[in-house]
Structure formats: structure tokens, C-alpha cells
Amino acid sequence: MIRDIKGCRIYNSRGEPTILVKVTTDSGVFSGSAPSGKSRSSYEAYVFDMEKSLKILEEIKHNFIGLTEDDFGIMDQMVEEMAGKNFQKIGAHLGFALTSALLKASTFGDPFKYFDDVRFPYPIVNVVGGGKHGGGTDIQEFHVIPVKAETFPEAIKTCLEAQKRIRTILLSRHEFAGKNDENALVSGLSEEKTLETISEIAEDLEARIGVDIAASSLYHRTKKRYVYEKLDREAFPEQQMEAVKELIETWKVYYVEDPFHEDDFKSFAELLDWKGKRELLVCGDDLFSTNMDRLKRGLRYHSCNSIIIKPNQAGTIGMAMRVAEHAARRGYKIVVSHRSGETNDPVIADLALGLGHFIKTGVWGGERLAKMNRLLEIWENLEYPKMASLRT
Fold first, then answer.
1. Which of 6, 20, 304, 384 is the most interior residue, by most CB within 10 Å?
2. Residue ranges per domain, the chain?
3. Residue of 132, 310, 333, 360 marked active site
4. DSSP for residue 315
């Protein structure tokens, strides 16, 4: 039985205040905390600041106290019904933190046990960063993806080795400029030089390359073109298409996220049709915003073959699960993702075991490694752990 629910102030990895929720049951105390994104879609659930979230929690917690914690689905539905349209009544920070704690309470601290079958996700690791997260490039993220790894420990080892090698190269060239919000490396190298460096290392480690262009951050709605400030150039939509295709072909890119702005479903579909579903993962983040209506629209256009799942975009963990499951039934690859302003809550690691083919988070920084270490711990404790299938 749920005996008490309390909230308190903590800080995310950017030093911003956020909310932590603690649910006390007869079995123990289970907590969840809310991350925050800097590169936010227009279609994400509404958020309140930490102080307002704490106040709202005090107003609604009596609805849960006294309930049996076993049925997470019912409690998640209660949060959704209280939230109002687009979470304008309680805010997505509270929705995520509360349902994270409730999921843990219902599974005695092991959220992955909520799922009937678990498969370990392949990491998509942001090794060099730019864009709104901070860095020397307009492209927001450059990834290493160890798709040939046979075990999760091997996959993490490959990603760590890749990031260490890139750092060594940047230091030797006097181009290392620190780390950004997501603990990705920051340098003064251009997009081309960055891709050249990562390409050499990825090939040697038998890994693949991914990029998050985060094109909504580049798109100027008045000018109706993409503005690359660091490159000092602009691109109309047709030029953006050609530039993305050239990038994919030149660097043998395996995964491309948000290559066009968040309302351009048709360009996503054209890119996917050009390359073929088996050769390239075209992934929607801002395009879908972990929103069922947006996903259904994308399915009508055949826009993508993979989707980013960020539970705090949806508002509750249960809502995010439904979006992921709907996409998976239609052949999408699921990428469960962190946010740039993260906490040490590892719940997305457990969700990736039940929902995902990939987990997108870093391998440097305690808030990122909390997710990876959680997966390593579970790998060691399961009798017959298996990696997810990437076959289409």
C-alpha cells in the first residue's frame, strides 16, 4: 500500500532545479526525478518550474495514498487524467517524476520486470557535440553505434574506447575545448573534419556513425530556410535535402535524426524512400515528440523507420510506452533517449530493456553512466541476457 508521497528540490546536470518524488510503500521508498531538455520541440508536453511542481504534488498526492501499488497502469492513467490537455494542469516534470517513482514501487525497484520480455539495447552515444547543447558545429550530435557488439558489456566498452580515442586525437591537434551539456566532447573542428575523425575510429572499432542534425533548431520559419551560423550559410529545403543525402553517402551514415524541421513530414519520407528502410535509420525526435497523434501522422506519410522516445515529452511513462509500442508494431526501431539536463534516475535504462532497440545516452558523466551502469548490472544478474534484434 502507498503510505506517503513527498517531493523535494534537486538539481539536474546543468545545475537547474528540478523535482524528485518519493513514494513510500510497505515495501520501501521509491523515487523518480525529472530531466529537462534544452533543444525542445514545439509539441512536447507543457512543463512547470520546480516550485510549482512541488505545490501541485501536495494538492494531488492524496489521490494515490492508500492505493495498492501493484497496478501501475491504473495509477499512470490517473496522472494522465489529472494533467489536462497537454499537461497544462500539472506539468510534465511532475508527471514524469511521479510515474517513475510509481513504476518502481509497483516493481519493487526493478522497472524492467514490468515487461514480459527484455532485450538489451544498442547504445547510440553522442561522442562529439554542438548545436544548442554547446560545441563548435551546427550539427548537434555525432554518434558512435556499436551495432556488431554481441553483448552489452562489449557495446559499452566500444563506445568508451571511441570517445577516449577521439579525445586523444583532439588533444594532439590542440582542438579539444572541453565537454558540453551532454558530456560530449567539444572541439573547434568543422562538421567535415569531425566526421572524418569519427569515421576512422568507428571503422577500426567496427561501429557505425550517426548524426542528430536537430534541424528544427536551424530552421528559420520566416525565411523558410535552414540557417547554419557557424558555417555562415543558408539552405532552402531542397538544398537541405541534397546536403543531408551527401552527408549520408560520403560518411556512410547509419542513423540520422531530425534531418528536417519538425513539421516537414514529407521530406523525412523522401529521404527514407531514397535510401531504403534497410540501409538507413531515419529517426524522428522533434517530428514526433513522443506524441501519439504526431506518430500517427508520420505513419500516414511513411516518414521514418525509427522514433525517439523521451518519456518526459509525453508526460507520463505509461503514455510514452504506448507510443513506443504503437511504433514498434509498425516496424519502427525504438530509441529510448536521455535529455541534455539529466538526473541520476536510471529509469530509461529499464524502459529500453522492454521497449527499445537502442538507448541514446552518453558514457561520460555520472548522470549518463547511471543508465549504462544500470544496464550492466542487470546484464550480469540475468541468466540468459540477449541483445535486441536490429533486423528489419
1. 304
2. 2-108, 114-381
3. 310
4. S
Sign of the CA dihedral running 55, 64, 319, 120: positive
The C-alpha cell that represents 272 in the structure block: 527514407
Evaluate whether 305 touches 269 at the Cβ level (below 8 Å).
no
Q: Which residues of 185-200 are buried (b: 16+ CB within 10 A; e: fewer)?
A: bbbebebeebbebbbe
Q: Catalytic annotation on 310?
A: yes
**Is 224 a residue of the active site?**
no
Q: What pLDDT does 276 receive?
A: 75
Strands 176-179 and 185-187, sheet pairing: antiparallel
Q: Tell me: pLDDT of 277 over 80.
A: no
The domain made up of 2-108 has a fold known as Enolase-like; domain 1 (3.30.390)
Mean pLDDT of 86-106: 97
Catalytic: which of 44, 69, 80, 182? 182
Report how far Cα 55 is from the mean position of its chain's Cα atoms: 28
Q: How far apart are the first and last CA of the chain?
A: 43
Structure confidence at residue 38 (pLDDT): 76
Q: Which CATH superfamily is domain 114-381 in?
A: Enolase-like C-terminal domain (3.20.20.120)
